[in-house]
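During the first year of the project, the team set up a workflow for recording each protein of interest as an amino acid sequence followed immediately by a discrete structure-token representation. This format lets reviewers and collaborators read both layers of information side by side without switching files. As required by the reporting guidelines, we include two representative entries from the current panel. The first entry is reproduced here exactly as it appears in our internal archive.
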Amino acid sequence: MSTPLLRRRGASIALSAVVLAGGAITLSACNPLPPCSRNWTGATNSNFSVASNWAENLVPGPADRACSTGGSTIVIDTNETVESMYFDGTVTIPIGVTLTNISALDTPSLIDNAIVQGTVGGTSPMIFRGTTMTGHLAGNDIVVMTGNHPLNINNMTVDDDKAVLTIGNPTLNGAVHLCANGALGFLGDTTISSNQTFDSVGCATVTNPAFGVGQSGTLHLNADISAAGIGYGSLGTVNIGAGHTLTTKTNSQLGGVTTLGTGSVVTPLTGGYVLTAGTLTGTGTVTSDVTGAGILAPGTNHAGILNVQGRYLPSAGAKLQYDVASATPGTGFGQLTATSATLTGATLAVTADVGFAPVTGDSLALVQAAGVTGPFTATALPTVAGHGLAATLALTEVDLVVTDCDPGVYHPGVILTGQNLSGKNLIGCDLSGATLFTTNLSGANLTGANLTGAHMGFANLTNATVTGANFTNAINLNNALGLLSTLNNGWSNTNFSGTALNLASQNLSVHGTQLNGANLSGANLSGATMSLTNLSGTILNGTNLTGANVTSASIDATNFTNAVLTNATLNGSVGVPAVTLPATYSNTICPSSVNSDANGGNCEGTFSAGGGGGHVGSAAVLPNKKR
């Protein structure tokens, strides 16, 4: 069996392909190697250029594979070029001298112990079992440092398209200078214990230099890393010690697990932290946006805060993951803080420890941010000791709420006729198709519950909370008791489509003013009073608003498509907010005093700017622009 062959991965060295993708770099143990055409004897001295030191009495040249046996000592005393080499001993390349391998067949070269003060270049792979590296590595292929002997890297320069891959645990002393597309990848178990700089000082060309951790690699940062002009990526395991910093030009996590110790700080100066795959966890700080489809798992051992001093912007397939041991902040579950969090695209995944014993009403603040938008694309929440868990989104946080919604009791199609569920916490329950005929739900919390197609006849909803609930096609909802009183707690984002909701002549303003985002398609609101009500984003498709009073309500982006607005009042009033635009009025049946277009129904009423552009003034009936 021959010495392992390192396969060349291509002329262009890129961070994602070489430094990280361990799978692109293979060592094959059984490939035959070409015979040695020049064999070292060292009969005269240690100088490479002396012919009498070679058994053939000829100095190796560009067509030769030069070899030496174990224990040999060779000094490259002049610039030398060989096809390839196999030196099972110590080779010294002094300052000012270059050793180059040029195998067209990618025949690997090996030096058992390389002392590099000058330059090693070439276009085919090189293996150092051990090295003291203070010099220059150039060319467009790979140098692998296996770590059979100590790897001491002191002020190393990597140039051209050369990639240096360490399998052993190198000792880094002094800066690593990465030029052109030069790259350094850690493929073994590496610990950096003293502050380290990666830069491009002294480089003639700087294109896209990078360093990182390969799929098989583990990097322990027990020091500060400064690499302001160098890209960084990881595919393996990275542990950033407590209180230490990692500052890089860019930061791309393509897999593996990166753990931030308490007080650690990761700073990508350009492009944010790109979490394409893998898991980012711990209790440190990222000073930028976090984006991508990977897993963000705040905390360590269900405790602590992961702080994102930017936006959390997950993409499709991303996961926000928590392990919960108790409802106690700081010790029972991890928390995420961010400037803002846009959660659409992400799945919320929660696991509960065996000892987690919550009580109904416990609320765990999983995310805290100046702005939170959603919803999650999906949730994966456990049932714990007969309780359900539900995620609720507010303007500034995401809470994990412990509910009474045990899926074994409350589930789609369940029959709950006549049961007393007064005051029950049923946040997020899936009761689609359930029979709730005469069920007492007074004071119950149905926030975000799914009641699609549920039978609601004579259910008691007095003072229940139905914000964000889905009543689509619910049966006999108009016969439910106390329905209007639920507006006291707001109908923001509540869906009543398909229920033919009858609120004719009701004074909704008495009960509440939060209808923003609600779906009231097909409802009868004729003669209803909704003055000062927030209708922003409300869907009123096909709704009957004949004679309704919507004076000074906020109707930003409200959709009135096919709504009947005959004699409705949409006037703004002095001293209160005016009706703001835009709103959709396409195909609306207009008052008789207003002209219609040839297609029958796009309102063209009188428009007054009132207190300023974009407002319906006190004399307005309807906007005169087609919307």
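The second entry, processed by the same pipeline in the following quarter, appears below.
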Amino acid sequence: MPSLIDLRRRIRSVKNTQQITKAMKVVSAAKLRRAQDRVLAARPYAEIIQRMLANVAQAAAEQNAAEEIELRMMTLEGILSIQAGDNPRVVQEKLITFVAPADRVDVQAACTDAHVALERHRMFGPHHMPIRSPLRGSGG
């Protein structure tokens, strides 16, 4: 059985530990209170930033949705025209109507290049690549 001095030391040790624990609780409560105050003070700024980001995301989603719908309509129109057996030039003209007037010249040039490539494929096969020689100009 422990002696009286050992019991007193044990009691004093427990009381010291309790005092330290109480002091730590007070310190942690003060830190928590300060952190909560900072969060509450920052809340209006967070709401403003959240609204700004939501507006940007919504605008981007609306723009992407409009572009996606236009692309799907264009693809569907092309597929239906090809299935109907329309002339490729007619299909080209139908699809160009989806493009803004300022960009139509570029699209028509790209379509012309595609038609040239298709004709080369029909005439010479899929592996025909024009040979360009610095001495002879362009070869074929």
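For the second entry, the following points were noted during internal review. Strands lie at 132-133, 137-138. The helical segments are 4-83, 88-96, 104-124. Both points are flagged for discussion at the upcoming steering committee meeting.
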